[in-house]
Design brief:
The chain is α/β, with parallel strands linked by helices and 213 residues long. The protein has a single domain, classed as Rossmann fold (3-Layer(aba) Sandwich). The chain contains 10 helices and 8 strands. Strands 3-2-1-4-5-7-6-8 form an 8-stranded mixed sheet. The protein starts with 9 loop residues before the first helix and ends with a strand. The relative contact order is 0.14.
């Protein structure tokens, strides 16, 4: 996983991640966004699986922008007003904003879930190492219990993708969410993250692995 010290400038992140040059967002929020190579893999996996995609903890909208053309409607949720403003600007630049609903709210708030109707829900678990580099602590320990969040999401849809930290393991995840596909994402030989698929998105129960350049 990338360390914040190697992500000192927006330009370095944009070049390394191959983001478009006019992407909106500061260095920190770019550093915790998804790699386009990984999202290309996910896009192929989700194509044709639904019409409405929602993302919890959507950040500046990199995932929504990358997957957006595969869906008729997009929903993004984040608790940070400034981050959502970046997200809105990015989706406008990508000509996706007209089919997007952005919601400012905390996933601990039951009212937030009541505003979402979607076929597929992505939950991007906040955990990235840059938070620790900035002295913000280990976010895994500060997140709400995964079992509780997934139970709320399942009231919206059974088809869920969890972006999980590399130090999450299959047994722990399965104990909290039940039957799932736990996919280890390897980028250039490094275990970058895990994708956890639930519902009809499961292709093979248990542990799978994908290697990406």
């Amino acid at each position: 996983m990338e360390d914040l010290k190697s992500l000192e400038s927006r330009q370095a992140i944009i070049a390394r991640r191959m983001y478009r040059k006019n992407i909106k967002g500061d260095a920190f929020n770019l550093s915790i966004s998804s790699n386009l190579v990984v999202l290309g893999h996910l896009k192929k996996r989700l194509e044709g699986k639904g019409k409405v995609l929602a993302e919890l903890c959507c950040g500046i909208g990199i995932t929504l922008e990358s997957l957006g053309n595969s869906f008729e409607r997009l929903i993004g949720v984040d608790n940070d007003k400034k981050v959502l403003s970046y997200c809105a600007r990015n989706l406008k630049d990508a000509n996706l904003f007209q089919k997007t609903t952005l919601i400012q709210g905390d996933i601990n708030d039951e009212k937030v879930f009541g505003k979402i109707k979607a076929d597929i829900v992505i939950y991007d678990v906040p955990f990235w190492r840059p938070h620790m580099c900035l002295g913000k602590g280990h976010l895994i320990k500060r997140n709400p219990p995964l079992k509780r969040v997934v139970a709320k999401i399942r009231k919206i849809s059974k088809n869920i993708v969890i972006f999980a930290p590399p130090d999450y393991d299959y047994k722990t995840i399965k104990n909290q969410v039940g039957k799932c596909e736990f996919q280890r994402i390897i980028i250039n030989g490094t275990h970058d993250r895990n994708y956890v698929y639930l519902g009809d998105l499961v292709q093979k129960e248990g542990i799978t692995e994908v290697n990406l350049g």
